[in-house]
Specification:
Helices cover about 10% and strands about 30% of the residues. With about 120 residues, it is mainly beta. It has a single domain, classed as Immunoglobulin-like (Sandwich). Strand 3 and strand 4 form a beta hairpin. The N and C termini lie far apart (about 100 Å).
Length: about 120
């Protein structure tokens, strides 16, 4: 006959310290006629500790936990960020602009001139 010691099971479950790490969603992209905006949560990171490298075809974003983040219990929710985002051939990553609003990193890319739609005028005659 098999028996389960429930009291021991509950003791083991509740005695173990539990840690939770917040992992934000990857990123969101909003593409418009003239530009594209990439949004990424950098909540809890010091803006001076965020590294952004722009290339023609990709953008790299890195932010590491600091020693203070690791030691402070509320900052345990902060996670390291390491993203490589392909921007595609219609946008130039080298001309990107970045800003932070309310813990969200916004990177704006302008569409390359040659990939912008060209309006034609009809000649009637």
């Amino acid at each position: 006959m098999y028996t389960i010691n429930y009291s021991k099971l509950f003791e083991e479950f509740f005695d173990e310290p539990k840690t939770t790490t917040y992992v934000p969603n990857k990123f969101a992209v909003d593409i418009k006629d003239e530009s594209a905006t990439i949004a990424l949560s950098v909540l809890g990171h010091n803006p001076n500790d965020i590294e952004i490298n722009c290339f023609e075809d990709k953008i790299e974003i890195k932010a590491k936990k600091t020693k203070e983040d690791i030691e402070h219990p509320f900052n345990q929710l902060v996670s390291d960020i390491e993203e490589r985002i392909q921007v595609g051939k219609n946008f130039d990553g080298r001309n990107a602009k970045a800003e932070i609003k309310n813990g969200i990193l916004l990177i704006t890319l302008e569409r390359k001139e040659e990939s912008k739609p060209k309006k034609l005028t009809l000649k009637v005659g």
